[in-house]
Amino acid sequence: MFINKNKYFLLIETIKDIDLKNIKIRNKFSIIYRNKSKIDNLKDLLSFRQKCKLKSIKFFVANNFKLAIYLNSDGIYLSAYIKDLKFLNYKKSNFEIIGSAHNFKEIQFKIKQGCSSILLSKLFMVNYDKQAPFLGIVKFNNLSKFSKKIVPLGGIKNSNLNQLKNVFGEGFALLSEVKKKPAKIFSRLL
């Protein structure tokens, strides 16, 4: 079964996490580079950014405005813990701000920060923390009524991809499944 949404966000921690050859559809994918440890080689990052441009894939850098400007990225991704409004000063017409949130209060703050899309976590139970709370489809849909900008993130894998048809929103975000089974996931996205 194929899943058809307007936007797909792929969160990667290193440029080696994804092979851009797997992405065949243009203008639907956005890659969020959120490296929490050592940043990849800048020359390699610039080359990766160029490949994204050629394939019409939007490229965002997480929480590092200087790197986002240096790479001429399409925008910046603000994690839920970023509680600063200074990014509004940097907003320009072609520089997009996206963010993440875990609850209604954080959603409201991300709207104040000028985010065009808000990744709301966690939709489903995640493998790395079975005790962590997750929203489920009903709670997610209730929260997404407050803004059209909300995109589900967390616990989305090949086995529950069909359930996304019941989720309100124009897209979804993937993290771990991009690394595990990229070809399988990309073949199901139209």
- CATH level-1 class: Alpha Beta
Largest sheet report: 8 strands, parallel
Helix % is 25-40%
The CATH topology name reads: TIM Barrel
Structural class: alpha/beta
Strands of the largest sheet, in order across it? 7-6-5-4-3-2-1-8
Determine the mean pLDDT.
80
Beta-strand percentage range: 15-25%
Number of strands: 8
- The protein's oligomeric status is single chain
Q: What are its keywords?
A:
TIM Barrel, 8 strands, globular, eight-stranded parallel beta sheet, 190 residues
Structure description:
This protein is 28% helix and 21% strand. The protein contains seven helices and eight strands, in the order E-E-H-E-H-E-H-E-H-E-H-E-E-H-H. The protein is globular, with a radius of gyration of 16 Å. The protein is α/β, with parallel strands linked by helices and 190 residues long. It has a single domain, classed as Aldolase class I (TIM Barrel, Alpha-Beta Barrel), CATH 3.20.20.70. The chain has an eight-stranded parallel beta sheet with strand order 7-6-5-4-3-2-1-8.
Describe, in short, the structure shown:
This protein is α/β, with parallel strands linked by helices and about 190 residues long. The chain has a single domain (about 5-190), classed as TIM Barrel (Alpha-Beta Barrel). About 30% of the residues lie in helices and about 20% in strands.
Indicate the topology.
Elements: E1 7-12, E2 29-33, H1 42-54, E3 58-62, H2 65-70, E4 75-78, H3 87-90, E5 96-101, H4 104-112, E6 117-121, H5 136-144, E7 150-153, E8 171-174, H6 176-180, H7 182-188
Parallel strand pairs: 1-2, 1-8, 2-3, 3-4, 4-5, 5-6, 6-7
